Amino acid sequence: MGETLSYHCPRCGKTHLISYGWFFRSPATAEQVMNGEYGPRAKRNLERHPGTNVMFEYLIFRCSCGHARSKEVMTVFDDERAPWDRDPRRKPVWDNARCSCPRCGKRMHITENIPRSIICTCGARTEQALCECLFD
Ligand SMILES: [Zn+2]
Ligand SMILES: [Zn+2]
């Protein structure tokens, strides 16, 4: 239910992988959260809302400097519905959808648009994205 793209930099040779889309986790996820693998805040929320649903997705973050990356984002919902139910009235009680730019340190913003190319950490523009793989 998602795709991974690779962006090759002709100057420094680095390849940047960007993924987007949501994916399933095994039922062991709640257990991992309770073990603290997703940090103390996620654990506290799951303790407070035991029926909570958890969604995992890759989101694309873009920086004003032209760099982009993706991050595995976990969202915790305070109800029993399926994680992929995109009802806009649904309120997440917790998520980790924040990251800063590895190139310039600024706060990055979520984008729905898949970048055709990005600015590499070395400052050069990468080649156009190639589809690396599909995952579910
Ligand atoms: Zn580069
Ligand atoms: Zn930046």
The biggest beta sheet reads: 7 strands, antiparallel
Bound molecules: zinc ion
Q: Can you tell me the number of structural domains?
A: 1
**Tally of contiguous helical segments:** 2
Order of helices and strands: EEHHEEEEE
**What is the number of strand segments?**
7
For the termini, the CA-CA separation is 4 Å
Low-confidence stretches: none
Fraction of residues in helices?
10-25%
Mean pLDDT: 87
Structure description:
The structure is a single chain. With 136 residues, the protein is mainly beta. It has one domain. 11% of the residues lie in helices and 36% in strands. It contains two helices and seven strands. Strands 1, 2, 3, 4, 5, 6 and 7 form a seven-stranded antiparallel beta sheet that branches. The structure holds zinc ion (ZN) (2 copies). The site of one zinc ion has 7 residues, from loops. One zinc ion binds next to loops.
In brief, what are we looking at here?
The protein contains 2 helices and 7 strands, in the order E-E-H-H-E-E-E-E-E.
Features:
single chain, 136 residues, 7-stranded antiparallel beta sheet
Helices, strands, pairings?
Elements: E1 2-8, E2 15-23, H1 29-34, H2 40-48, E3 53-62, E4 68-77, E5 92-95, E6 109-111, E7 130-135
Antiparallel strand pairs: 1-2, 1-7, 2-3, 3-4, 3-6, 4-5
The protein binds zinc ion (ZN) (2 copies).
